[in-house]
């Protein structure tokens, strides 16, 4: 299996790059943001609860998103691997993910972070807000709040994976094509290493 986390602040391009990577590597895309938005669209109790947090730029409680991820992992037992996008977003979520994957005799193999300046992020999010229909992208104070949540709660998740030597930052400004090539180069390296280890084991 190959399990990847695409990491980075709101607006760093995780969604765009995820679409390309899942296609290229045959992974299942798990975006907690997308999963939550479809719960909201269907007006489920979970969606109604989540919307209150999301509209303010706050995180949805850990139990809710961890439960969603657990369900999705169960639904895709035959997957070649997963691409986690927007998850884990807290140290607690990262620990829960490690446990869930361990139960499935697998783990996270790589964490790739998209590096983008705050100025560029605000610009992109406000631009996206004009067409995305996402209420959390139209208000600058909600966007700033998402950044401060990212700094305080999500950035520490990087430390967790740095300590495990699984973390690599990639410049996230430039053309979509160049960024996706840089991500692919890194993924190919990790896959190659995985193949060598497997051969040595066989
Ligand atoms: P972005 O990265 O652009 O903020 P997302 O679609 O990933 O967009 O997330 C939108 C919102 O959904 C977040 O601001 C948060 O409220 C909620 N959310 C998404 N993923 C998580 C998560 N793993 N934990 C808690 N809340 C989440």
Automatic annotation (TrEMBL):
It comes from Niabella drilacis (strain DSM 25811 / CCM 8410 / CCUG 62505 / LMG 26954 / E90). Its main location: cytoplasm. It catalyses: AMP + ATP = 2 ADP. Pathway: Purine metabolism; AMP biosynthesis via salvage pathway; AMP from ADP: step 1/1. GO terms for molecular function: AMP kinase activity; ATP binding. AMP binds at residues 32, 37, 58-60, 86-89, 93, 134, 146. PROSITE patterns: ADENYLATE_KINASE. This is Adenylate kinase. Residues 31-60 are annotated as: NMP. Gene3D superfamilies: P-loop containing nucleotide triphosphate hydrolases.
